[in-house]
Amino acid sequence: MISALILLVAYVIDRIVGDPRALPHPVVGMGKAIKAVERLIRRLVSRPRYLRPAGMLLPLIVAGGAWSLTALLLWLLAMITPWLSWIAAAWLVSTTIAAKGLKDAGLAVYTELRRGDIPAARRAVGMIVGRDTTSLDSPEIVRGTVETVAENIVDAVVSPLFYALLGGAPLAIAYRAVNTLDSMVGYKNDKYLHLGWASARLDDVANFIPARITAVLLTMCAWLLRLDWRRCIHMVRRDARLHPSPNSGFPESAVAGALGIRLGGENVYHGVTSFRAYMGDPVRGMEPGDILRASRMMLLCSTIFACLCAATAWLIGWL
Length: 319
Hints:
319 residues; mainly alpha; two-stranded antiparallel sheet; 2 strands; 5% strand; globular
């Protein structure tokens, strides 16, 4: 029963409070730890060929350390009073969820587009995407925003709740550490090709099941929101595997199918053009309202999964 309440309270905290800057956030500490461990590894390992096996130390130390510290903290608080441990667990799980942050980021871009302020919209979308945004027009700004909202349904909501259900706050925090590692060192460039490979692969493995759960949930959301749920299923079957990520294609193709738009295409990174496989068919042109529709799908998907996780935790506790 307590586990179910922790999951529900954590989700409600995120939906209401989000990530207030005044409070310390575990991801900030994770980022500092990742940089420190990376510096240590590079200082100890000078030859590039040894960086690949050394790269396994990053997730082992950072994710393992995050799990251990969280478990230790909750144990110490439980020694004082179980309620302190319960409150801390709910707050810690809430820091791994970012439904409110995703909604707010999308709304910021939508607001600028509705005002007709394209330069401001470019700056807003530049805060949530890695591509160059200085020359994007309105449809491309919409595309970048919708892709980000769709992709992060897995990373920022479904996966954290999934691992909180399986292993409580320690496993949810460990997942967030894995995801942070991927965002910081999981690049296929000269600097991180060898050192970051293990972090990138572990993130792929961690999101494998949640990504596919998300596709099913988004189909349900499309039906509930009276969007095109049949095309949603069709696009997941046809296009999800075309994405360079083994997981991101599932939510992106589902949202593209439900909305009747086409995601993917050419992106520019540091002046270099890169093509990403198309997701969905262009039944109609993209418009700012698609940001709101994608956000509604994300929020409904998040709420349904949070309730399912809480119900599952309650049933397991009752049995």
